[in-house]
From TrEMBL, chain A:
The keyword Transmembrane does not apply. It comes from the Bacteria. PROSITE patterns: 4FE4S_FER_2. It comes from Streptomyces cyaneogriseus subsp. noncyanogenus. This is Ferredoxin. Residues 1-29 form the 4Fe-4S ferredoxin-type domain. Its cofactor is [3Fe-4S] cluster. Keywords: 3Fe-4S, Electron transport, Iron, Iron-sulfur, Metal-binding, Transport. Ferredoxins are iron-sulfur proteins that transfer electrons in a wide variety of metabolic reactions.
Length: 66, 420
């Protein structure tokens, strides 16, 4: 799995961090999403898919690599 | 469903807000509208007409469209409330001046949003848990039956937001009245609203001035400190630098109102939905790891969310195959969309383990609820604490006797009678 986020779209809702705190974070200065890893471990995949599904601005993009 | 069939169905005199047979039931019209008339015309309490959306995809697409925002007095939009009865949140009056669109909105949003990150809200959890325990202990000490709304649902989020803003929770009776008048659709007269609005602005203006003189460790003090260092550097107020005095006042008012009714109502509705079919409560007792998804499902399943979000359509837009002309006002029913079978399997079943749960209760797009991580954390803490402290909790009246709050932009229950 390969993960990217669109920081321009992000509205700082934090739903991704609540779903997958090992993968997503928010910048202290404005609450915008950052990635802790762009290649999450397999045990994180379900939480990452959830984060992408619940993101209010569809700012999370998941590419399946294999 | 063919276009022909949709056109042949004209709902007779659709009047908003719609309501179900009981406080927790969805209005019967939603299913019919989603199936046969997803772009309907409805009459608002003012008598003006708006376009009413009930399908998930349509609501999601419109709320995500950055061209369209909540109407203000400047727009020639349909009015919700009858003349004089609408509070500032309903009329979009200029008395509150948070930048509401475009780049200035995004700038405001990021400046304030940093205080509501998931990590910050998680850090508040231990304090929230102690507060919930104290309120529940007091409720238990007073004995059954109790009104869970008055004992817990209302004070809990109010204490939390007062603490964040650094305003004294002892003033909560006044805040509560100001908040209700801010959200009035038909509850208050023009005079009552004007007075409340003036008092609220004067109070918050004084509070901002006091924080400027004596900063403390709270959100407003921090925003003020930032604004003082930055206003001179940008052009003015909303354009380049920090927040102006009026913007700080509006921010304080907006956050206080947002932290008042919405989560307070949701606590009462969540507990009622979980107790009205007590197998739901028992499932959570057996598996508390479901608290997080149960909170999301309660948010999805709630039928009693109030009006829905409004958008002013400044240019023609196609919605679900229909052209909605420029100048229209659209009311997006998030709870109707949350029950759309096209988006949720078994949409009319409350599934406490449902994941993912992309419900629209907080809105979507660039204007989706700023405080959603706070609301989620509060709801999780309240539910966890109730399950631990009062496992025998049950409703003290039949669910069909629960009474709705009426006359405000947001929906809730007037009281939540419980026993244990």
């Amino acid at each position: 799995m390969k993960l990217t986020v669109d920081q321009d779209k992000c509205c700082g809702a934090g739903a991704c961090v609540l779903s997958a705190p090992e993968v997503f974070d928010q910048r202290d200065e404005d609450g915008i999403v950052t990635l802790l890893t762009s290649e999450p471990a397999p045990e994180q995949h379900a939480a990452v898919h959830e984060a992408a599904a619940v993101c209010p601005t569809a700012a999370i993009h998941v590419t399946e690599t294999d | 469903m063919t276009d022909q069939a949709e056109r042949s169905y004209a709902p007779p005199s659709l009047q908003l807000p719609l309501s179900g047979d009981t406080a927790l039931d969805p209005p019967a019209e939603w299913e019919e509208l989603r199936a046969r008339c997803p772009v309907a015309h409805a009459t608002l309490p003012s008598g003006d007409t708006a376009v009413y959306l009930t399908r998930y995809d349509d609501v999601r697409a419109l709320l995500s469209d950055p061209r369209f925002v909540r109407p203000t007095e400047r727009d020639n939009a349909a009015r919700v409330a009858p003349e004089g009865m609408g509070g500032a949140a309903v009329t979009g009056s200029a008395a509150v001046s948070i930048p509401d669109r475009g780049a200035p909105h995004q700038r405001w949003r990021r400046r304030v949003g940093r205080y509501f990150t998931a990590k910050r809200m998680t850090a508040l959890r231990p304090g929230m848990t102690r507060l919930a325990e104290d309120l529940i202990d007091a409720m238990l000490a007073d004995g059954a039956p109790a009104d869970l709304r008055a004992s817990l649902g209302f004070p809990f989020p109010v204490y939390v937001i007062c603490d964040l803003l650094g305003v004294p929770a002892e003033d909560r009776e006044r805040f509560s009245h100001w908040s209700d008048s801010f959200l009035s659709v038909t509850r208050y007269t023009a005079d009552e609203i004007r007075t409340a609005q003036q008092e609220f602005v004067a109070y918050m203006s004084g509070h901002v001035a006091a924080k400027r003189a004596e900063p403390a460790d709270d959100l407003l003090s921090t925003l003020i400190a930032e604004s003082e260092t930055e206003v001179g550097e940008g052009s003015e107020g909303s354009d380049g630098g920090g927040l102006s005095h009026d913007e700080l006042v509006a921010t304080g008012m907006g956050l206080l109102v947002a932290g008042h009714e919405t989560t307070a109502n949701m606590i009462g509705k969540m507990v009622s939905m979980l107790l009205c079919d007590r197998s739901r409560w028992e499932r959570l007792l057996a598996d508390p790891s479901l608290v997080r998804s149960a909170v999301e499902e309660s948010l999805r399943f709630d039928t009693n969310l109030g009006f829905g979000l409004r958008r002013y359509i400044g240019e023609d837009v196609e919605i679900g195959g229909h052209v909605v002309p420029a100048g229209s006002t659209v009311v997006c029913s998030m709870p109707a969309a949350n029950r759309d079978e096209r988006a949720f399997d078994g949409a009319d079943t409350m599934d406490l383990a449902r994941t993912p749960n992309p419900h629209l209760t907080f809105g979507v797009g660039p204007h989706s609820c700023l405080g959603q991580a706070l609301a989620r954390t509060e709801l999780q803490v309240v539910l966890e604490t109730l399950l631990t402290r009062v496992p025998t909790l049950r409703l003290a009246v039949p669910a069909d006797e629960l009474r709705r709050t009426e006359g405000l932009l947001v929906g809730g229950l007037r009281e939540v009678p419980v026993r244990w």
